[in-house]
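User: Could you check the structure of this?
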Amino acid sequence: MHTKPVLILKHIDIEGPGTLGEFLQKHHLRSQTCGLYKVNNSPEKPGDYSAIISLGGPMNVYEEDRYPFLRWENDFLQKAIKEDVPLLGICLGAQLIAKAAGARVSKNPVKEIGWSDVSLTDEGIRDPVLKSLGSKLRVFQWHGDTFEIPKEGTHLATSPLCTNQAFRVNQRAYGLQFHLEVDPGMIALWAEAYREELASLNGPIDPEKLLWEARTHHKQYHAQATTFYKNFFKLAQLIS
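Assistant: Sure, the predicted structure tokens are below.
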């Protein structure tokens, strides 16, 4: 077993690691979860971890006054990028990595909530982590903001409603705008917790339809996510 744990940064209780956590357990990769919303003893050194995972959340990266831990996380991720610690950001986590790498994060023209297709760019098709997933992915979205691609980053995936869906910085820091980690139970939890947001949209989204699609896609989605995790943790040299 690798001596250093994988660090998981949580921004809200209901947005956990999902199938990613299951993968870490199955492959006997030790992990440490830090709920940034409830603790003050945040980690100090990115190099103390074999990889860092930054999860999603309903806040925006620019709400540092309301959520002071975002300011801490920006500094922490900047250090991690500089030290080439393997990084994976999901949704808010991807936006935070983009911001830490010097890119702008702002409102997307539309909110994306539900299942949609994203296409890999030419660079994405060649990328060591994404290349075995196929050129088009069916993914689960829940976001209102979007990131620009960092100046020294690589654009990996796109979609009609959100141009920047995935990127890489250096060789081992990845940001995904979409949620690969979800399972039907997580989606049901979010649909209940964020029901006012769903109802407020133009053309309100039906939670039952979200859950039906989640159950329909789950087996294939889990397999797709597992392939991504394997490729990422191989690149991080944590599994063979």
